[in-house]
Amino acid sequence: xxxxxxxxxxxxxxxxxxxxxxxxxxxxxxxxxxxxxxxxxxxxxxxxxxxxxxxxxxxxxxxxxxxxxxxxxxxxxxxxxxxxxxxxxxxxxxxxxxxxxxxxxxxxxxxxxxxxxxxxxxxxxxxxxxxxxxxxxxxxxxxxxxxxxxxxxxxxxxxxxxxxxxxxxxxxxxxxxxxxxxxxxxxxxxxxxxxxxxxxxxxxxxxxxxxxxxxxxxxxxxxxxxxxxxxxxxxxxxxxxxxxxxxxxxxxxxxxxxxxxxxxxxxxxxxxxxxxxxxxxxxxxxxxxxxxxxxxxxxxxxxxxxxxxxxxxxxxxxxxxxxxxxxxxxxxxxxxxxxxxxxxxxxxxxxxxxxxxxxxxxxxxxxxxxxxxxxxxxxxxxxxxxxxxxxxxxxxxxxxxxxxxxxxxxxxxxxxxxxxxxxxxxxxxxxxxxxxxxxxxxxxxxxxxxxxxxxxxxxxxxxxxxxxxxxxxxxxxxxxxxxxxxxxxxxxxxxxxxxxxxxxxxxxxxxxxxxxxxxx
Length: 520
Prior knowledge:
single chain, 520 residues, alpha/beta, UDP-N-acetylmuramoyl-L-alanine:D-glutamate ligase, Protein-Tyrosine Phosphatase, Chain A, 2 domains, 8-stranded mixed β-sheet, 6-stranded mixed β-sheet, 17 helices, 14 strands, globular
């Protein structure tokens, strides 16, 4: 009896400890949320306003020296910078180095932004470093030097984590732009990379590819080698101009060829990932060379890569990019495992990435594929319904996104039976909490989702579609994501002979919200 009461007491203590830890984590998420400014992103703060505050923050946190010693790979770009960073980190970890990876945004938990040796930072370490930074900054900030804004705080936290954990290499993804990004306090990275450039965040970065490229090239540093993925001519001219002003050797990293992987597949799927992998190979090779490991880098651009490079590239993983996940709530019964509800998640949110996303969706859903039935439906499930679940930030122009998605889908023989438009769940949540959207519909402003629906109707039916009030035949607006999920699950359960293939895109936040609901 005594031993059982001891184990019961231990269990109770563990449960109480868990509750305390959960409460502390909620508290931290609340504090982080308080740093999110209510200003629109196009506010001049994003144009380097008060940029000099970063120097004060580094002083307060005593990070200048640690950052100067850090062996950094710094990557900017419009599309593929997160994938490039993920591949680069995976290669160097496969080569035996300890790694730190800082990316954005997170999908379900803020700790995803800080990876140590390929794994999200533990809650324990995250809390330790959070309080260290928070308390020091709270003590030293005032009206003249306010607390850093949200992304700046996270970047400072990343520098603290990676320096304290003494990683061999820190791979940093730029949050937005380049020149005035919080990660750009690194004065002497080992190597810089520019992933594919395109039109995004134009309200902040400029209206032409040249202007956008000039902003991204703000990460170039005198004497630091730089690589770029192949770029449109206008962007390439701007990058080369900035590079020559700084005396930087800028080289084009060519896309990887499949044969270089010796029959292995890239860990991140999609044709476009060969571009990102090519850039990652160039960045990792240069880093190795600069650290005196010349014997470990590829001999040339055409031969198969060294095994450690292939292992890294094939094992790389990044949630929410060309990710396929089945809904276990619907696909739980043995007898109907072939006919299902499957989510195809891709956080595409620029015109070019919409096209890539559409081609990927076509590729992974076409009937003649042989894939494990555990991932997607097998051929025994005759009917399929293709459904679009979409939202995008209101700073983005849906007329630049939805036509690219629809036209590319149509050209590739994909027809959407239904389009669902929803607000992001996370806009109602504090960061990382499990609270739900408000229950009362009148609290929810759906004007943006209704305008997305009108654009979709116009694309399908011309001008008469804009005024078609009976649009429920091929599109619906839901007040919340859980309601849309319930609609999908109900339809899937009622139509067991049909496979529901749901493409979730337009916003990484939406992708994260769907992942959170499917994994609950």
